[in-house]
Specification:
By secondary structure, the chain is mainly α. It has one domain.
Length: 119
Amino acid sequence: MNVNKLARFLGWFSIGLGLTELFATDELADFLGTKRSTGIIRLFGLREIAAGVGILAQPRRLPFWLWARVAGDAMDLAALGLAAGPSNGQQTNVLASIGAVAGVTALDIYAAEKLSVGV
């Protein structure tokens, strides 16, 4: 696997996810059953966009920005974990989202580790 191509993919993915969190906040909050968390979702969107732009604009700093994505993934997983309670009517959607974020986290860690060698 070409880790530089993976990093570019993760950069674009981050920007796309961030734009979704910024401009489809209400729809995402409905999907996750977290109507009171729209401000947090928007902040997470800004964080995603910053990481994506960092990955794409600063190739020498790729490990830093990929590790920033890993930290963001941890925040996302913590927030989703809080939303996964039994009182949430969208618990299935939250659990599916946790699985998706966990998968992307694995890619982020893989790329960050590969690019951190020798830095």
